[in-house]
Design goal:
This protein is of the alpha/beta class. The protein folds into two domains: 178 residues, NAD(P)-binding Rossmann-like Domain (Rossmann fold), CATH 3.40.50; 106 residues, N-(1-d-carboxylethyl)-l-norvaline Dehydrogenase, domain 2 (Orthogonal Bundle), CATH 1.10.1040.10. It contains twelve helices and eight strands. Strands 3-2-1-4-5-6-7-8 form an eight-stranded mixed beta sheet, sandwiched between helices. Helix 1 packs across helix 2, helix 1 packs across helix 3 and helix 7 crosses helix 10. Bound molecules: nicotinamide-adenine-dinucleotide (NAD). Nicotinamide-adenine-dinucleotide (NAD) binds next to helix 1 and helix 4.
Length: 294
């Protein structure tokens, strides 16, 4: 595999593009929203510079990575790829329509992957005529740093496709772990109820934001509190994942807490919107992320 296309340049898409570029793949990063595409490019440049400053990569590796990424708003220009990874908002209808279009327009051997946090890979595969070549490739946030790729087999994914994605993940120096296709897979099935419970505790006045996060960090050894983590993931993303699990697993314990819904309705989405459970001015935001991941 050499040519990788990434659809969506938000929180996850720009990190995925950056990671492939660093390992010398030819990357095309596409977003329907040109402002978001520009933001994605700025984030990549800033993150590469930060890696140079921390001596994690050399100046020339950063320059090389920059040269490996083409930013585009032209959907047709991304189709000729070995792998297309869909990284758009957590919405089944949207993802399904993209999978349908990719299936119609990409070469027959192109693998189509989704970075979805919770949506059925089997249902996405059913929107295509290449069900064996559809797979979940779930990177963790922030992508350049986190080692895990949760690889999700649909009921149709071929062994050949899974093996290719495992090899590819290893080429990115990630650790792929394979799971079956259930709502929320493993990572979010276990993480999201904890985040939702932390929000419920805040809503009921059990403790304030800092103490909830502090208790989970100091008492459980978590590197980051659940409310901080929710802000990093995006509160809209957390809400969507819980809704997919509620719908798919039919258990009321996955119902998003009303405070989470209220914050999302008020545009408070966490780090990406500047406010969530914490308030992020630009400098605070940088400090928050670098403290956690240095
Ligand atoms: N945020 C996280 O921590 C995290 C972690 C793992 C997986 N995910 C999953 O990754 C996916 C993306 O999440 P995110 O947090 O990056 O979202 P985001 O809101 O930051 O970015 C989504 C991007 O998709 C773009 N987009 C929307 N419709 C599009 C279309 N039709 N064509 C092209 N681009 C389109 C938007 O303009 C936006 O830039 C979701 O499925 C989410 O569940 C998120």
């Amino acid at each position: 595999m050499k040519n990788i296309s990434v659809i969506g340049s938000g929180t996850m898409g720009n990190g995925i593009a950056q990671t492939f570029a660093l390992f010398n793949f030819n990357v095309k990063l596409y977003d329907i929203n040109s402002e978001n595409l520009k933001k994605g490019e700025q984030t990549i440049l800033k993150n590469l510079q930060r890696m140079v400053n921390k001596e994690k990569i050399t100046e020339s590796e950063a320059e090389n990575s920059v040269g490996n990424i083409e930013y585009t708003s032209d959907f047709n220009s991304i189709l000729n790829a070995d792998l297309v990874i869909e990284v758009v908002s957590e919405n089944f209808k949207l993802k399904k329509s993209i999978f349908k279009e990719l299936d119609l327009k990409c070469p027959k051997n192109t693998i189509i992957a989704s970075n979805t946090s919770s949506i059925s890979i089997t249902k996405l595969a059913e929107a295509t005529t290449r069900k064996d070549k559809v797979i979940g490739m779930h990177f963790m946030n922030p992508v350049p740093i986190m080692k895990l790729v949760e690889v999700i087999n649909s009921k149709y994914t071929s062994k050949e496709t899974t093996d290719m994605i495992i090899t590819l993940s290893e080429q990115l120096e990630k650790i792929p772990l394979v799971v079956n296709d259930f709502p929320g897979f493993i990572s979010n099935r276990i993480l999201m109820p904890m985040i939702n419970e932390a929000i419920e505790s805040l809503d009921q006045g059990v403790a304030d934001v800092k103490n909830i996060d502090g208790i989970m960090k100091l008492g459980m050894g978590h590197p980051m509190g659940p409310l901080q983590l929710a802000d990093l993931i995006g509160l809209d993303v957390c809400k969507s994942i819980l809704e997919v699990m509620l719908d798919g697993l039919k258990n009321p314990k996955y119902r998003p807490n009303k405070l989470l819904i209220e914050l999302v309705n008020n545009g408070k989405l966490g780090i990406k919107s500047g406010e969530g459970f914490y308030d992020y001015s630009d400098s605070k935001k940088a400090e928050f992320v670098s403290k956690r991941f240095s």
